[in-house]
């Protein structure tokens, strides 16, 4: 299923995952007019843009951003997570939908605030602004669930990114794959349709890794991660190690914007 090794001794120093009451290491800035979580060494020349899931800022997602920033003392990143939903994310109680009302609200959210054409044009502007203000010379992008779709569409011809990651991605479409132009790592959960992911992978023409997490639910690396569960915590940590290893290999400061 993969064309990459997941092993990397560089990721052995990933910070211990905090199960409850996480205190983020970063702070908030403004990028393209959006409140943006910013974390990592300000001396780092490599940046990662995080596209959260539809539930917005959750401790589990903020902790993930901090892991990406500080997970390897020798290879650090500046990491940025814009609030694309501007303080009005989806309610986590809607998913998985328990009734028709939840289904309706989710559908409305995906067709309005989460419609990709609303988010996609902002990403190059954010990258350009942060490159200038923060001294970033090369960029990676990671997205969760809905954010995985945004990453797929942001990895096409003309992208400013050098490497991409999608964790438990939503709306996986084989038609997106041939246009992907940068190395790509995808971490599906047990809830992603296997046929969709396999068809997508077959269409890729770039170095890539698809690594399944068959014990985990959709959302385990972001808002829906129950980090008090030992198995979830272990796989959450392994997922971030895998992403970091892939980014270390493919994101070089020699590849400037």
Write a structural description.
InterPro entries: AB_hydrolase_fold, Dienelactn_hydro. Residues 35-250 form the Dienelactone hydrolase domain. This is Dienelactone hydrolase family protein. The protein is an alpha/beta fold and 257 residues long. It is 31% helix and 16% strand. The chain is built from 7 helices and 8 strands, in the order E-E-E-H-E-H-H-H-E-H-E-E-H-E-H. It has helices at 59-70, 100-111, 116-119, 122-134, 146-153, 194-202, 230-250; strands at residues 27-31, 34-39, 46-51, 78-82, 138-144, 163-167, 184-187, 208-210. An 8-stranded mixed beta sheet has the order 1-2-4-3-5-6-7-8, sandwiched between helices. Helix 1 links the parallel strand 3 (46-51) and strand 4 (78-82). The model is unreliable at 1-12 and 253-257 (pLDDT under 50).
Assign the CATH class: Alpha Beta
CATH superfamily, by name, is Alpha/Beta hydrolase fold, catalytic domain
Our measurement of the CA-to-CA distance between the termini, rounded to an integer number of angstroms, reads 31 Å
CATH fold descriptor: Rossmann fold
Assess the beta-strand content as a share of residues: 15-25%
Q: Any idea how many domains?
A: 1
As residue ranges, the low-confidence spans are 1-12, 253-257
What is the total tally of β strands? 8
What general outline do the C-alpha atoms trace? globular
The Cα radius of gyration reads 17 Å
Give a short account of the largest sheet: 8 strands, mixed
Helix content: 25-40%
Strand order of the largest sheet: 1-2-4-3-5-6-7-8
Average pLDDT level: 92
Under the CATH scheme, which architecture would be assigned? 3-Layer(aba) Sandwich
| SSE pattern, N- to C-terminal | EEEHEHHHEHEEHEH
């Amino acid at each position: 299923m993969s064309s990459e090794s997941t092993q990397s001794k560089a990721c052995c120093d990933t910070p211990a995952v905090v199960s409850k009451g996480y205190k983020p290491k970063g702070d908030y800035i403004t990028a393209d007019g959006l409140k943006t979580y910013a974390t990592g060494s300000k001396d780092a020349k490599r940046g990662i843009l995080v596209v959260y899931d539809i539930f917005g800022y959750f401790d589990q997602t903020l902790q993930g951003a901090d892991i990406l920033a500080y997970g390897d003392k020798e290879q650090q990143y500046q990491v940025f997570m814009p609030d694309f939903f501007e303080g009005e994310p989806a309610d986590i109680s809607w998913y998985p939908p328990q009734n028709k009302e939840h289904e309706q609200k989710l559908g409305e959210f995906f067709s309005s605030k989460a419609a990709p054409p609303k988010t996609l044009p902002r990403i190059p502007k954010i990258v350009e602004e942060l490159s200038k203000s923060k001294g970033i010379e090369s960029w990676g992008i990671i997205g969760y669930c809905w954010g995985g779709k945004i990453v797929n569409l942001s990895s096409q011809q003309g992208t400013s990114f050098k490497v991409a990651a999608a964790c438990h991605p939503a709306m996986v479409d084989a038609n997106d794959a041939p246009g992907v132009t940068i190395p790509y790592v995808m971490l599906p959960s047990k809830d992603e349709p296997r046929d969709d992911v396999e068809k997508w992978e077959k269409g890729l023409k770039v170095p890539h890794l698809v690594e399944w997490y068959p014990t985990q639910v959709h959302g385990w690396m972001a808002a829906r991660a129950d980090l008090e569960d030992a198995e979830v915590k272990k796989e959450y940590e392994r997922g971030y190690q895998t992403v970091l290893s892939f980014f270390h290999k493919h994101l070089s400061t020699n590849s400037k914007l």
